[in-house]
Amino acid sequence: MFNKICIIGIGLIGGSIARAARTQGLCDCIVAYGRQSGINNLIKAKELGVVDEYYLDIESAVNHADCVIICTPVGVMEQMFSLLKPFWNKKTIYSDVGSTKGSVIAAARKVFSEVPPNFIAAHPIAGAEKSGVEASKEDLFNNKRVVVTPIKSSSSDCLSKMITFWRAIGAQVTEMNVEHHDAVLAATSHLPHILAFSLVDLLGKKDEQVEIFKYAAGGFKDFTRIASSDPTMWLDICQANKQELIPLLQQLQVKLAAMEQMLADDQSQQIFATFAYAKQARQRFLTQFDNSMSQSITFNVQPGGSLRGEIRLPGDKSISHRSIMLGSLAEGVTHVSGFLNAEDSLATLQAFRAMGVTIEGPENGEVTIHGVGKHGLKAPAEPLYLGNSGTSMRLLSGLLAGQSFNTVLTGDESLSSRPMKRVTTPLATMGANIKTQNDGTAPLHITSTRSLKAIDYNMPVASAQVKSCLLLAGMYAAGDTSVTEPAPTRDHTERMLNGFGYPVQRDGDKVHINSNGKLTACDIDVPSDISSAAFFLVGASIAENSDVTLKHVGINPTRTGIINILRLMGANIEVLNERTVGGELVADLQVLSSQLKGIDIPEELVPLAIDEFPVIFVAAACAEGQTRLTGAKELRVKECDRIQVMADGLQILGVAAQPTDDGMIIQGKTSASITGGEVISHGDHRIAMSFSIAGLRATAPITIHDCENVNTSFPEFRDLATQLGLNLR
Ligand code: S3P
Questions:
Q1: What sign for the dihedral angle of Cα 325, 330, 332, 337?
Q2: What is the per-residue burial (b if ≥16 Cβ within 10 Å, else e) of 567-591?
Q3: What is the pLDDT of residues 675-696, one digit of tens each?
Q4: CATH number for 87
Q5: CB of residue 490 inside a 6 A radius of ligand 1
Q6: Does any ligand 1 atom lie closer than 6 A to the CB of residue 684?
Q7: CB 158 within 8 A of CB 118
Q8: Is residue 389 assigned to a domain?
Q9: How far apart are CA 314 and CA 330, in angstroms?
Q10: Segments in the chain below pLDDT 50
């Protein structure tokens, strides 16, 4: 990319850039500029081979350099620009690595009057407590974020070249404007540093300091790790960004004073709510951002094997969502057991905490919800982030349309591309005020209207989410709201509303609700999710010599399409110990290996098995003859386009899978049905798990990329699948 890179200030960051650029072959020659006082560091840099040469005069250092990166503290940027000014070359790209960007741009303006277009400000968010060139390493920026903060006058060529450079050394590059960068970093980095420095300063000066440090276990050590950072550098950063930092410090003081008061007044509920909210928020941040940054999860499945054993699978996702929603709106305390501790259901839980509901847990599947009543929710301080969860977004849109406050609903990339008009259109007819993006996708901006009116709605698609959304809105609407389904869909909302004592009537394919009801807290026992069971129902069917019993699975008739379809294909599934638990049918399912045969899947079963088709396609690939699915266009708008993505993956694995507009045609084989290969799940949990199950009948290993989202519905999948005999790493 470059002939000569000149690094000004060769410490941890500058040294790591040099090492990475060299390893990746991004330049012919790297030199450093430094001052006499730092000569030892410069000598070391050359000795270590980090740079080819170093200079104490700037003119020689930048001579013929086509890239100059200023890696000095932000406090001396003005000095550096003045030093560079006489030799500034229009053909060279200049950049920096400062932690504050407003001050850097201001320094450039001061020296040059206009910021030169070939200066591209950047901030790699990477570092270590150690400093100096000896601490530098070539992978410091691997998977780390680098924020570039171009301004209006920045050259787009220089910008794209710097972005390419950072990407080439492993970083994930984000563009931000200067002010936004400084505000974000003040909150996420600069404030925590001030806190860590201050806390150690406070405790260190106490008389009993020796005691404190002697017993300082994980908490103190973890919390104050960043107090080992370079004080000069941090003084610089805090001064440079004080405009953003001071208001944050003031807010923190208010928070601490409130905490002090809550402790003094023994307000245990409020304290708990603060802690619990923080715990969940941190968890969400770790899974949402940190995981995707640092660990992309790949499954590797060795071919063959059998599934054998008896297990209880995690709780039903649909019921878990609804338990939080209705428990929050109930009067009294609702206890939930068997709650699904996965990202999707936690997104709902977190949303209600953000709306002022105290929710304890989940701890071993137990959740306690201190209901606030139908009108007791409070405005959340921030947009509600719902991750990957379509159910959360669609059901909440109805529930929130009738509240007395405004809300914004956001989600991850997949959720933000899914159709929301199917809920916002009928809600608008009820008088709701919800803005989507132009293409009908999230974020959803819900503006409070206190006067929802009932509608009689004929659903164009068979969707439990749309039905549930409108029933929840109907709880706040004047008149009788009714929803007619074109085909039966899961009825957990209706059942649970009745369980909470809220009247809902069914009249054939029509469900009615009105606002004259209240929810009374109750206990909810969430059965295992049949959608998670589906992977093992198929797995044990297709793998020879298998015998699996899945305990306590929900077999609500609106969910058992998978059992019906597999039985039509010749599967050997027994439903044992059928019983009713908390208004839902539950049973143990025993499944033995069998030779499946291809079928035309009856269209009326499609909504009853809507989430199970990815793994049904795998069953079809191992069945004798052709399987044909029609009437399942909805699969194209799930977490990904499940028709296309499954067809692509199956074809890679040697299966004759032909996608159609509304389904798929698969020519199954009895032996050697699936070859090995590498497939991509497109971030869709069910695709990742389905291809894992395919490994049971594969002739070579299957690698499945992009499996992080298994955590949205079934975080224990890997452990339970391996426990039963799947060879998955
Ligand atoms: C769900 C309904 C279904 C299903 C989803 C969960 C629910 O969606 O695919 O995983 O809990 O109501 P649709 O209503 O879009 O079919």
A1: negative
A2: eebebbbeeeeeeeebbbbbbbbbb
A3: 999 999 998 999 999 999 999 9
A4: 3.40.50.720
A5: yes
A6: no
A7: yes
A8: yes
A9: 25
A10: 291-294
